[in-house]
Write a structure and sequence with these properties.
Radius of gyration: 15 Å
Distance between the termini: 14 Å
CATH architecture: 3-Layer(aba) Sandwich
Bound molecules: NADP nicotinamide-adenine-dinucleotide phosphate
């Protein structure tokens, strides 16, 4: 299972239900990676999407403990159900949020990472893959910059 995540320099990923600092190129990369594939997303992160709607051109598997339906999405009520539904697709990305990353972390073998060289306040964090002995960076682009904020795309794999 793969994940896509943008982290700040303290491995923070967001605060109060949203990402305080976003780099447009990260959104483009996210779209390029996930379009045509499936995504597993937490119900709270879905609420932060434009209009609170599922992502277009992707199979959205929304994980929730509630008995709800969301138009344009498949619902899963625990990790096992989400993983079972993901099997129908050639490729599936875990796209957050924090609780979903935490629960799926043991399942992850590849992480498409964006490092954003800034540390706005975060209340949600992703594990520090640079400090994790069982992960290594297999590819890293040069650092780029948008409006004074440096960012870098990279890919990590579980050893
Ligand atoms: N930087 C990034 O790349 C990135 C990406 C995505 C999100 N984020 C950030 O992450 C933060 C949100 O994270 P979050 O942890 O608050 O919310 P979340 O993980 O998006 O959603 C949490 C909800 O998902 C459902 N859920 C989680 N685990 C479940 C399980 N095992 N079985 C059934 N349902 C489950 C529950 O929904 P119900 O309450 O409906 O039961 C739970 O309340 C925000 O700040 C957001 O901006 C950052």
């Amino acid at each position: 299972m793969e994940a896509v995540v943008a982290v700040y320099s303290d491995w923070g990923i967001g605060a109060q239900g949203t990402q305080p600092l976003v780099v447009p190129a990260d959104r483009v990369r996210f779209r390029q990676l996930t379009t045509g594939h499936a995504v597993i997303v937490g119900r709270k992160t879905l609420e932060d999407f434009p209009g609170g709607r599922p992502l277009k051109n992707r199979h959205n598997i929304v994980i929730t403990r509630q008995n709800i339906t969301i138009e344009g999405a498949e619902m899963a009520h625990d990790m096992e159900e989400a993983l079972e539904k993901a099997k129908a697709y050639d490729r599936c990305f875990v796209i957050g949020g924090a609780s979903v990353f935490k629960e799926f972390y043991p399942q992850l073998t590849k992480v498409h990472l964006t490092k954003i060289d800034a540390a706005p306040f975060s209340d949600s964090f992703f594990p520090d893959l640079d400090a994790a002995e069982d992960w290594h960076c297999i590819q890293a682009d040069d650092w780029a910059e948008h409006e004074g904020v440096r960012y870098q795309f990279s890919t990590y794999e579980r050893k």
